[in-house]
Amino acid sequence: MTTPAPALLSARGLHVSFPGRNGDPVARAVDGVELDIRTGETVALVGESGCGKTTLARSLLGLVRPTSGSIRFDGKQLDHSSRALKAYRRRVQLVLQDPSGSLNPRHTVYEAVAEGLRIHGTDGDERDAVAAALSRAGLRPPERFFLRYPHELSGGQRQRVVIAGALVLEPELLVADEPVASLDASVRGEILALLLRLRTELGLASLIVTHDLGLAWNIADRVAVMYLGRIVETGPVEEVLTAPKHPYTQALLSVLPDAPGDPVILTGEAPDPSRIPTGCRFRARCPVLASGEADRAGVAGACRTEDPAVLGAGPEPGVACHWARPRVSG
């Protein structure tokens, strides 16, 4: 059995909390996360809106300071001083969901891509670096796009400019927050193919934040399913998405167009990070508990009173579910 490569980015015991307003309870947006991303690996972080995945991504980028826990990059603890974060963000770049909102409408494509070089004061020829980044992002010949403005481009071209702006600094890790959510279906495949090609050609690691399990299937090596601030299932993408163990993952997959059987409609209130229940955090919406299946399996009491342990960060599959764990070990 081969030993997995050391993590490029790792989180251990990560918590991010925000104070409530007017005496409201503290919101535990990230509530104990262990996560590794290795060089050249693409990890998809999936879950509903409000589950904490964007806060987790922002914390890994150094944009939100953790309440507790640790983040390490290339073996070193993340330093939140301004100087250290500037150096860190050259190696770890963010690609946002909405390219129209990411690009200054008054800046040309050249200025948008060159901005990172100017901020970080890199050596070398700026024009050559901008041209190379645009070319890698699929905008060829790059010089044809230098003097264009965002409104003169299609949605797919704008997203490629955003990706080129990240690539120009030659990062080791991309964090992409819903990178194709705002694009037409005809363009989504092109951008996904581009991200896959960048992994192959440049050895880039990626964290893809998405609510779309179909996207995760097409692009990721591993998937981490997040619910109410915590990763509840993780493992190789083929294993998790073809044989999901956690009832939440099963429900997410059941509504995909090609999913077998009837969709599982989750009842109850949407997750609220200021009111995390005792026991399993999914229990109020869990169809296994509601149907009596957890009672028949003898785990209903644990579901209501015992918080499943935080999943480890390793590459092996894991599930934080009292009902699923006996079935996995058996």
From TrEMBL:
<dbReference type="InterPro" id="IPR003439">
    <property type="entry name" value="ABC_transporter-like_ATP-bd"/>
</dbReference>
<dbReference type="InterPro" id="IPR017871">
    <property type="entry name" value="ABC_transporter-like_CS"/>
</dbReference>
<dbReference type="GO" id="GO:0055085">
    <property type="term" value="P:transmembrane transport"/>
</dbReference>
<keyword id="KW-0067">ATP-binding</keyword>
<keyword id="KW-0547">Nucleotide-binding</keyword>
<protein>
    <submittedName>
        <fullName>ABC transporter ATP-binding protein</fullName>
    </submittedName>
</protein>
<dbReference type="GO" id="GO:0016887">
    <property type="term" value="F:ATP hydrolysis activity"/>
</dbReference>
<dbReference type="InterPro" id="IPR003593">
    <property type="entry name" value="AAA+_ATPase"/>
</dbReference>
<dbReference type="InterPro" id="IPR050319">
    <property type="entry name" value="ABC_transp_ATP-bind"/>
</dbReference>
<dbReference type="InterPro" id="IPR027417">
    <property type="entry name" value="P-loop_NTPase"/>
</dbReference>
<dbReference type="Pfam" id="PF00005">
    <property type="entry name" value="ABC_tran"/>
</dbReference>
<dbReference type="InterPro" id="IPR013563">
    <property type="entry name" value="Oligopep_ABC_C"/>
</dbReference>
<feature type="domain" description="ABC transporter">
    <location>
        <begin position="11"/>
        <end position="253"/>
    </location>
</feature>
<dbReference type="GO" id="GO:0005524">
    <property type="term" value="F:ATP binding"/>
</dbReference>
<dbReference type="GO" id="GO:0015833">
    <property type="term" value="P:peptide transport"/>
</dbReference>
<comment type="similarity">
    <text>Belongs to the ABC transporter superfamily.</text>
</comment>
<dbReference type="Pfam" id="PF08352">
    <property type="entry name" value="oligo_HPY"/>
</dbReference>
<keyword id="KW-0813">Transport</keyword>
